[in-house]
Amino acid sequence: MQPGLIFSWYAVRQNWAGSVQPEDGNWIGIYFNRNSLAPPAALGLLAASALLWVVLAHRPKRWIAIGLTLIAVALFDGYLLVRSGSSTSVGAVIVFGLVWLFWTVIRWWQRNKNISPRQILRIGYPTFLFGVVVMTWVGFQFQSSLLNRLGRKIDFNGREVLWRFSWSGFKDKPIIGWGWMSAWRTQNFFSDREFWWALTNNYWSHSAIMDVLLGGGIIGAALLVVAIVWSGARQLGSVCSEISGQWAFAATWFVIAAATQESFIIGNHFMLVLLVSSMIGYQADQNDDSLNKTISPA
Q: Among 6-10, 27-31, 71-75, 182-186, where is mean pLDDT lowest?
């Protein structure tokens, strides 16, 4: 991932064809578009920041040199993220930070109040899920005023038309959907819908959430929600005991947040791999008692 970002910077510096969007100057690098450059840049920034968190907390040998290197990587990737002009990944980074902060507080609570994993499951995890629901509602409820303050278009750069089109298709087949990525390749999907003539060359909804609803219906969406909630519940033990145990939760919701604006998790995109690996998380060997003796202060 990092080599791709370095080559993207080099491509822009050397003025390679297609490395910059001519209409607005946003960077693309060696990727398909700015929203393809931004996710690896954002993930590189977050990974370097998480590693820096660990280094500062534990201060291993040569920690100053390692820390300075990680700061340089974070600044470089952050610069690429900003120059891409992608608000989607910036929003996902904010979500990552909020999730990381929440579970950092839970880790502090667990360490100082000596609460049990069962209490975290009964209190902490439902609170987290409730917070996700509330923040999602607030985000969509006040999206217009927020975008106006940022000087952005209210239609999410034209995606709103695609989302309305997808929602209309979902309502036609709400239970099982049209089949995985089949709707956009089915002629009947375009009949009797507003603006169908402008969307016949599209093959996705520019929102993985919409594509899941459109392709799998309520059943597909329910399975995805169950998988996300279940994966979080099974990682509650490691989130407080492992070094940077917040990563699995934060990375999962980073991908989900980004997937509200792009179809990252419905194809062969690296964000799908990140989502799956984060949901799997780290499962300690139950026979290794040493893993249960130390709680990381980070």
A: 182-186
